[in-house]
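Example 3.2
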Amino acid sequence: MASVYSSTPETTNANRACRVVLGPCTDGLRDVLRQEVPPHTFHHVIKQNKLNLPRLTAVQRDLILPKHGGYSGIYDDMDISLLYILLRNITNISPHSKGWGNDPDPHDTSLSANVERIRLVRNRCVHSCDPSMSNTDFNSIWSTIKSTMVDLDAFLMNANKYEKAVDFLCHESMDPQNDLHYEEELRKQVEEDTKTREKVDNLENKLEKLTKSPVPQNVREQYDIDIQKWREEDKIYYETHSFPSMMEKVRNQPCVTFVGVPGSGKSATAHHIALKLQGEGYQIVPTKDVKKMEDYGDPRDPQVFVIDDVVGVFGLQKAKLDVLTDYEQKIT
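Structure, written as tokens:
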């Protein structure tokens, strides 16, 4: 019985276009990156241009800034989205006449214009909700890809390597297994793009909060260094049977003091609780001065101030207690 989901010439067109984008087009951009930034220089170039890079997804960051030491620069693992970001931001490729991110002039054969065309064709395939593609649209896309890869071959001086690949795929058999493979690849890219947009939105919201925060940026950066140290030390923190009770008191009181002998875990517990609250949307302010609570307090956003040795270390220091008493009303 025929189904509305049966393969047709139009669905084959769509999958063939996806195949050429994920194959020769992606490999071509990888070769351009290799020529512009030889792999052995990737580490140095990324370090120099790290501030020029836009916000990246976790997957993209791991590909160029892995968590465990060094910069990988494994170009074969990079997709068109990441390759475009790198070619645009860390190489000396000049923008085309319409500027990066815009449709290039149809007569522009510059390298940047061709990189842009590959990105646009990729987006057209990835973001299409239609599993089929008309012959007219297919022929238009294929013509763009063919001319783009001819120009890329000339730039890379590799004879007509990618032009041949495009011609081959134009007539290559497309069986159901191949169709499913490329549909799955594109589905993953759609999901990745969706996650990217969500993460960018979340980061922009956090950035907006930070820019409006009464804590100066330079102070915030120093605090972030301290908090990162807490996070490393917190990996070995163990919650004892009394921890839920402490957490409950912190939630229900505007001010909680931990009292104990040196080395009993007061600071570690306070840091652990602050980190848990940070995960709930609180801003950590690890100041050493009670008076800063007046300067850095923000009634618009939840905050947790962490002050070590607020009234002394080995004994009560009356001067510190007097300051705490003076600010009692504001703290409450």
